[in-house]
Each structure stands twice: as C-alpha cells, then as structure tokens.
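[audit] Reproducing an earlier prediction to check determinism. Same input, same settings, fresh worker. If the tokens differ from the archived copy the diff job will pick it up downstream; this log only records the rerun itself.
[audit] input (213 residues):
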Amino acid sequence: MNISIALSFAKHNQKLEFCLMKAALYMENEKFIFCLEGVMDIENTGTTEVVKILEDIAIKQGIASIYKTCDTIEGLEESLSALLYNDHNFKDYEIIYLVMPGEPNNICLNDYYYSMEEIAELFEGKMKGKVIHFANRKIVDLTDEESQYFLDVTGARAISGYGSDLSEISSTSTLDRVFFNLYQDNDNLKEVVEELFQKHYSLCQLLDFRLYY
C-alpha cells in the first residue's frame, strides 16, 4: 500500500492534535496506533517524547498513528469519540496507546484519579478487537476479575502494560515500539509476547511486561 506521513498540529475542540497519516511511504502494515497522552494543560504542551517516538516509529517501522493530548476525563472521552464516530478508518486503529500516570488500578489526569472500572464504562462497547496498551508511566496490576470486567465491558481484545514502577527506563522508547512492531506481523498475541520475551528477556523482566486477554 502506498501511504504517507503528514504531520499537522491543529487546535480542534481545544485539543492539540498530532497526526501521522497517509502519504509517501510504502507500508504494508494496517494496524495503526491511536495514542492519548495525559498532560497537565493541553494549552501549554510542547513536543513531548511520545510525539518524537511516534514520528520515528512511522518513519522507521511504517506504523501510522494519531496522537492527541488530554488533561481531563472529558477530554479523553471526547478524543476517543471523535475518532470513533468521525474516522471511517477507526477499525484500522487496533492499538489504543495510553500514556498517562496513575496507580495499579487507576489513571491520573490533573490530580484526579479514575478507576479502571470507570475507564471501562467510559469505553463501553467501543473497543471491540482493540489492544489497550499502557506505557509504563503507570503500573498495570489487575486481578483476574478486574481485567475480565474491563475486557467484557469495553469489548477490547487485550490489555497490556507493565508491573514495574521503574521510572528510569521509558517503555515508550524501548519495549512499546518493539511490541507494536511484532504485533504488525502476527495476530496471535500469545506468540507476540513470547517473541518479545525471547528477544528482550531482561528488559521484559525489568519492566515486568504484562498481557491480560
């Protein structure tokens, strides 16, 4: 498929949008990434590490992305709804990439905490077939009951993330991009995780990579 990368920054509904879209690269991959990054203030956000990494992933790995910031739970819901109802290619965004702080069973936006149950209800029925991947800015440590509830309510295929609170190593620039790349070539998530551990065992152990499905 002949597709391109276009970079655009625009204010839409007070959201800073960074889009990696179709244009000039030959890419066969169609599992795109929709990234939401939690920030303190969407009006005062420069180019974050996440933006730079997504751009590099698009250029070097051929994986297109849409990136948005949010500083409230309403902003998170609005961004997701805009993609869900306005982008006819939503089915191609198989990875929902959440980069935001929080504790094992919640996320934090502007010092407000929202439980995974609340996030599940926010995403209710909207994540069919998606992989919800959390960067290691927050720990993912769910019980079987919590993870199954999230998957059942959202319709998501899987939840992935990290159990370690090691902040010195960013998953965004390390394991996240490897995981995304492996998933492009293999729909079997169990095999993807096995290969991830085979190739980067020490780092997977250090960051405690986890998959709930």
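[audit] rerun output stored. Observation attached for the diff report: The domain at 2-212 is CATH 3.40.50 (Rossmann fold).
[audit] end
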